[in-house]
Amino acid sequence: MSNVKFGDYKPQEDPKDTLQYVYYTREGEYLGGIAGSAKIFTTTKEKYDQAVAAKNWESLNVDANMVKYDGKALSHSDFRYIAYIVSHESGNADIKELRCVAFTSRNRAVSTKKTWRSLLASGYSSVPNKKELPDKNDEKSKLARYAVLDVCFGVKDITDGAEFWDGTDFLAWGNSETNPYNKLGQNKFDEYKFVEIPKAVYDDFVAANGTSARYKDKGNHDANTDQGTHEHLKKKVKKPVLGADGKQVNGADGKPQFKEVEVADRIKYAIPSADFQDQQYWTSGNFYYETNVKTTNGISATITAGKSIFWKLTPNRLTAVTAK
Asked: Given phi > 0 = left and psi -120 to 50 = alpha, else beta, which region is 219?
């Protein structure tokens, strides 16, 4: 055996990724790269500028900085699509609200076993004309990307597992006002077996939404079945005066004649609606409303941000039954 020689063993390293992809700062600022890339990386502007000058992308393509979803690289296209919906589901350039929307939609995608993009492409999001967020660095776009990156990099979920959210309409319609679609109340009261809101969350929600809200009057309320205290506001408009032949009538001066008439304009709802002022739902110190809907889960509010409230699904109430 003394004549046997063994070669030096050198473990093979993974090949370095030298391709150029797309790069953002961790705070959502777009730095540059190849649009439509299969991978995205985060880095600093300084490191990106150095890589551009040296034409060396290997230094930026670090696995720990790759943007991933469900353990796989998130494509540039999917990232921009998700960020667009998150941006447009939020009111202002408010990182808290953007994070809440991002985490909540991700949670729902996981629970329904859908991809994040496919969920947001569905009726779950009411954003019209859905598309990818352009790589521009206005404040809201940067913050929307920042929120999505928080989800991808495993930042703690500030919504505590929320899967849905509602806006001002929840407070304005409750379960006692005929809504603009001529149905009674907000849909959550028809879908879950209870609705609960911790007092602190409720107070923040009300404070963010003011004392009233107005919605376009579609003219479809039936006066005989209309419920609640909302007001139907009208506006005056000028309409042409028509003759028996259906043609517009001209005056003595030869000019077309018009008349002023009142038409439906907006429906004004007080905030909050009567349900939220009824003390029978506050006996525990928190808002708790049994709907009598026969289903597995109720919803419990976990947080508010902007003018929205975020809901966690739960089979049992999470707030105390009696006041402390």
From this structure: left
| Cα-based torsion angle of the residue sequence 170, 171, 177, 179 in order, rounded to the nearest 10 degrees | -40
Query: 32: how many CB neighbours lie within 10 A of its CB?
Result: 15
pLDDT of 254: 76
Question: Do the Cβ atoms of 298 and 192 come closer than 8 Å?
Answer: yes
Task: Name the nearest CA neighbour of 59 among 32, 20, 10.
Answer: 20
Q: Rounded to the nearest 10 degrees, how much is the dihedral formed by the CA atoms of 168, 173, 175, 181?
A: -120
CA gap 131, 133 in Å, rounded: 7
Comparing C-alpha atoms, which of 162, 146, 143 is closest to residue 201? 162
Assigned token pair, 155: 């930042």
* Start-to-end C-alpha separation, the chain: 82
Q: Is the peptide bond prior to 198 cis by the omega test (within 30 degrees of 0)?
A: no
Average pLDDT by consecutive 10-residue portion of the chain (324 residues)? Answer: 54 72 98 96 98 95 95 97 97 95 98 98 96 97 98 97 97 97 96 98 97 94 92 89 81 80 91 96 97 96 97 96 78
* DSSP-H helix ranges across 90-233: 95-111, 116-121, 139-152, 168-173, 188-191, 199-209
Kind of pairing, strands 72-73 and 68-69?
antiparallel
Cα–Cα distance for residue pair 46/49, rounded to 1 Å: 5
How many Å apart are CA 166 and CA 188, to the nearest integer?
Answer: 9
d(CA 182, CA 227): 10
Cβ(236)–Cβ(261) below 8 Å: yes
* Token reading at 29: 């600022």
Closest to 241 (Cα-Cα) out of 222, 226, 260: 260
